[in-house]
What does this fold into?
Amino acid sequence: MSRLIYILNGPNLNLLGKRQPHIYGHETLADVEAECRTLARQHNLEVRFHQSNREYELIDWIHEARETAGGIIINPAAFTHTSVALLDALNTFEGPVIEVHISQVHKREAFRHHSYVSHRSDAVMAGFGTQGYTLAVLRLAKLLKPAT
It folds into this structure.
């Protein structure tokens, strides 16, 4: 099984640390990437880390992951609530998928309570701040561990 994981980030996450820090915190996406890469190396995982404000790029990366990756961590951001296309793409991926949300979406506006992506996700991390990413990396490390 591949030890490569994709960590995909949706719209506006490039502004992490600057946009609404009272909700999303002060860490930047570069900080999150560095933490994930360090933790992944400790667990013999390789990481491809991407962010896009364009739905089609996220879909293209999911398609790429089908051929190369053991697992996907995805924070679809606003596409969570709108994108059947992301759900369809994720449904073509055979490995584990973990959905991450920095905020506790169920304490926010009602429209944020529904996730199309959750229909495919094997786990959802919500409300852990950026630590949700590292928790997701740890979970994938366990799921992708070779059978002994």
